[in-house]
Design a protein that fits this description.
The chain is α/β, with parallel strands linked by helices. The chain contains ten helices and ten strands. The protein has a single domain, classed as 3-Layer(aba) Sandwich (Rossmann fold). Helix content is 30%, strand content 16%. Strands 1, 2, 3, 4, 5, 6, 7, 8, 9 and 10 form a ten-stranded mixed sheet that branches. The longest helix has 18 residues.
């Protein structure tokens, strides 16, 4: 990995620039509210799973299978083609043991991390991952990628996945990365007694940016989301994170660049309002009743060019803010800071991710599955 273009990290102004774009959009001539989303069809059939598992479209060679959850009472938005939302459950192997882990991906993500499934199999879990609606395997042509207007929208498909797992597994562990970590935390808080543990990989439980940006973000986003909830605004992200990951650049991982795009999906005010509302719920304090493992990088950075920080720090979120809020998740929180880790710690260089997995194994044996083995 060449680093001859290295420069000293400089503060990124993307967050404040984004706020400026949103504020500029507020007084425009198209401020008329979009209108209410379509009402669910009263005579729509109940949600259902496809009858059978089928070979996974992305990880077929590794033996993964997929199964689609149909939500006929969840119609798409007027901006999207007619139809209804779906979610997709992926499994690494048919049920073999009494414990299972359910993986929830982050923003601009889908499940492709086969090595994570391998680790959890070796820890005594059957492994499953859920591609949420409008993401990855669940994203259809014309849908607004990643869009939602309330984090609780995801609870239906998580509930359905957990129920499917529960038919074969007594013990369930939930794993969430980034935005998926926020979603998983709020689901766990709303479902006491459901989990033996919660693993959070760089969870997005606080908004990054300066205090001024964070103070402005809420009112500006709420105002714009009321009038233009699906307005597409560039996130302002660079390609550095993708370059640190994908094997076609300087990374070691292979995934679909059509699904996990290099520059990310557009940011939409309705989506960000929902994220901020979820983070506000964390700030008010959750009461998650299972042991919680929170892992973050030792350091965040904002490099503008390729350099050592790109492959050794969290370039996406502010890890200090995550650390400061972790104790608000519940009464039993283990916080681990991993030196040299990327935003998705499981995709860091081999020695770093091995350290990460070792920490999860020790926590699991001490507080999660180890406590429940016969």
């Amino acid at each position: 990995m060449a680093d001859d273009d290295t420069v000293e990290p400089t503060p990124r102004t993307g967050a404040s620039s984004l706020i400026a774009k949103w504020r500029a959009a507020l007084p425009g001539g198209s401020d008329t509210p979009r209108g209410e989303p379509p009402e669910p069809v009263n005579d729509a059939p109940a949600p259902w799973w496809d009858e059978n598992w089928e070979p996974d479209r992305y990880l077929k060679a590794a033996g993964y299978e997929m199964r689609t959850y149909h939500m006929p009472d969840r119609p798409r938005l007027p901006e999207e083609p007619k139809g209804n939302l779906v979610a997709t459950l992926v499994r690494r192997n048919p049920p073999r043991v009494n414990a299972a882990v359910l993986y929830i991906h982050g923003w601009n993500e889908y499940f492709y991390q086969d090595h994570v499934g391998t680790v959890f199999n070796r820890m005594g879990y059957d492994f499953y991952a859920l591609d949420l609606h409008r993401y990855g395997r669940s994203l259809d042509d014309g849908e607004l990628a990643g869009y939602m207007e309330d984090i609780d929208e995801y609870f239906e498909e998580i509930d359905a996945a957990i129920a499917l797992l529960r038919a074969q597994h007594e013990h369930i562990l939930l794993y969430g990365h980034s935005t998926g970590g926020l979603i998983a935390s709020l689901w766990a808080d709303a479902h006491p007694g459901s989990l033996i543990g919660l693993v959070l990989n760089s969870p997005w439980i606080d908004l990054q940016g300066s205090d001024i940006v964070r103070a402005l973000a809420g009112p500006v986003v709420r105002g714009l989301a009321t009038m233009k909830p699906t307005l597409a605004i560039s996130s302002g992200d660079s390609d550095l994170y993708a370059r640190s990951l994908h094997k076609s650049y300087q990374g070691e991982w292979d995934y679909s660049l059509d699904v996990k795009t290099v520059l990310g999906h557009p940011i939409r005010p309705g989506w960000l309002r929902a994220v901020i509302a979820g983070q506000d719920r964390v700030a008010a304090g959750l009461t998650i009743d299972c042991p919680i493992f929170v892992a973050i990088s030792a350091r965040s950075s904002t490099p503008k060019n390729w350099g050592p920080d790109v492959i050794s720090t969290d370039m996406i979120l502010n890890v200090e803010r995550i650390a400061a809020r972790a104790h608000l998740l519940g009464d039993h929180v283990t916080l681990v800071r991993i030196k040299g880790a990327l935003h998705d710690i499981s995709l860091s260089v081999n020695p770093v991710r091995r350290h990460y997995f070792d920490e999860i194994r020790e926590w699991n044996e001490t507080y999660a599955l180890g406590r429940h083995r016969d």
